[in-house]
Amino acid sequence: MKRFAPPAAIALIVVVALLEGLARAGLIPATVLPAPSAIAAGFIDIARNGDLVVPTLITFGEALAATLIGVLAGIPAGIWLARSPAFGQAYESWLGGLFAAPIVLLYPLFLVVFHRTNATIIIMGAITAVLPIIIQARTGMLHVPGVLKAVGQSFNATPRQAFWLIAFPAAVPSIVTGIRLALIYSLVNTIGLEFLIDFGGLGRVISDYYAQYDIPQMYAGIVAIVAISVALLWLLDRVERRLRPA
Amino acid sequence: MIRKTLVTLALTAAVVAATGVAARAADTINVSAGQKGAWDEMVLQQGVDAGIFKKAGIELNISYTAGGPDTIQAVATGGADMGFGIGTTAVIAAFAKGAPIRIASGSFTGTSDLYFYTKSDSPINSVKDFSGKSIGFSRPGSSTYVAEHVLADEQKVTPNFVSTGEMAATLTQVMSGQIDIGWAVVPVNLDLIAKKQIKIVAHGSEAKALASQAVRVNIVNSKWVESHRDANARFWHAYSETIDWMYKNMNLSIANLARYNAIGVDDAKAVIPFYPKSALQLYPIAGFDKSINDAVTFKFIAAPLSADQQKAIFDTVFAK
Fold it and tell me: What domains appear along chain A, each with residue ranges and CATH number?
């Protein structure tokens, strides 16, 4: 992830100022999008009501747990599919199809199995997360440059060495792309499910404020979600820097 | 040639005058309602099917939402011109917070349409057994939310209130044991009661304080109504006429209800005792002061509506 460059900050300030001006001029109805200053006040309000810190941590934790499950299951599965061409080709289109499917709509089924608990949210998030990781891990392993493989052979690398020192590091950028997608999708899934079943973290908070027609507070919750997204992607950036070959 | 043209114009004018309303282009009104299938929410469709709105020169685009908050948002943002069957406290809260909506009429007075159920083998048999049990409601501010809290206060029981969403999701959670007590409005789930899979453990009518309170109201977008006063007035007269028609032509309206819900006519007929005609009164909006108090009590608004706000919220109210 790029550093927070000054132009980006300036662009953000310009957009916020523009929205503030449009809202104050009455060109954007407050029922659709309140002024950023009203959202800031809403932010303070939800913090005072105890609806910010704990719900943010809950949502952050659920999305992170879902992604970690996706990583733990998805990377080995992707590597296995890369090493098993028959299975890889057989399941490639299935995985792509599942990835595009709105799995969140299956929530009544998961409610029956896991009940109205964090487990339902995490498991559904993990299912959403695992798919891009499998696809990207397989792709990364299949596209290890031939020259790198040749170098390994010339040094008489054992299969284990060839995997850990050459193939896996070469596949890291693709795997990280999968994890990045997984993070985004699991977060969206987590928030959506919390909203639908009125349970958990920020999705529930947004649902409650929406039901009470506290629109600035609802948007403040959405801003908190953006903050979580930025935090998760920053975390991933740090992990990627450690794993990526120099 | 000129005389011929004048004669043609005169004939055309005579035909237009003679056909009156029929010649006028119908006003299209976008309406949004929750709880599809409920007797009171199907007044719109009954009126369309009976040709009453068409006779009034009105064409309806009916859409159904998952509940009151969605209906309010649809009306407030102009996606719909009118919204139906919304919890009065939620409407008061939205109005107080600046939503461009007005109460146009009452929707449902009392809570006779609402019932609470458990699985058939549950040890819960009445409200007295509710303490410590989980009970579902649709959304904060909804009529189910208010009714459950009033019922619990009146009977001095302390259940755990859980937002379970709409009726199908609530049933799933009851049958899978996630919550103890579910909610529904008739005719929903009556087939399961007949099959003894679930049992009614309380009726909404047991909430005495709500018996003479309009728990749901109908709303209009304030900007829309300013520019459509005539269509608005014609609509509400047609709506009122539809309610009269439904109770005068009971067999036909019951058959319609059965068709809307894909249930048997006998099941649809079982609905009627839950819906006395007086419950569907449009005006006056009973117990509005109590609804304001509920909105404060349940923390939907910080303070009661001022006198000016109370006047403004009824700006377009339908008076028969």
Answer: 52-243 (1.10.3720.10)
ipTM over 0.90: no
Amino acid at B154: E
Tell whether A32 is within 8 A of chain B (Cβ). yes
Question: Min CA distance, A32 vs chain B (Å)?
Answer: 7
Alpha-carbon distance of A156 to B142, in angstroms, equals 72
Does the CB of A29 have a partner CB in chain B at under 8 Å? yes
pLDDT tens for B32-68 read 998 888 899 999 999 999 999 999 999 999 999 978 8
The SS3 assignment for B200 reads: strand
* Across A65-74, A231-240, B44-53, least confident range: A231-240
Q: Which amino acid is at B8?
A: T
For chain B, which domains are there? Answer: 25-109+213-313 (3.40.190.10), 114-210 (3.40.190.10)
DSSP codes, B76-139: HTTS-SEEEEEEHHHHHHHHHTT-SEEEEEEEEESSTTEEEEEETT-S--SGGG-TT-EEEESS
pLDDT in tens, B241-258: 999 999 999 999 999 999
* pLDDT for residue A82: 93
